């Protein structure tokens, strides 16, 4: 008996990550990082009370529909700009630069959205004070998380034209 030749299975291009995986990674990153940072910022703004979880949830949802999408777009644009301006710099160094810039930018924006949600616009000096307190309290955690993320997820794999 002669064995029939086996036709090779169609192989998936292993160099291109499926879009669903990218979306899931971004969603998980937004939930974990945003949720923990906004939780800390809410605590700094309001302290722990019986309304803490409601305050945290509304602050998280507010940031999820405003700050986080803008941050994702900014990160992809910044990645392309840094790659263009620093082509001879190692990918790891470029990712650290992107991570530092994104941490400061996103922390500032999330601190503002959290303070607006928790404090409101009744007093701009109180809003500024709560924004600054939340930013300074959460910045070390944000810097740590963003550096780890930018070194592991590789922002260069996230391009606007993928979505």
Automatic annotation (TrEMBL):
Protein name in UniProt: DUF2798 domain-containing protein
Taxonomic source organism: Shewanella litoralis
The UniProt record lists the keyword Cell membrane: no
InterPro entries for the chain: DUF2798 (IPR021529)
Alphabetical keyword list: Membrane, Transmembrane, Transmembrane helix
Listed transmembrane segments: 20-44, 56-75, 96-116, 128-153
Pfam families: DUF2798
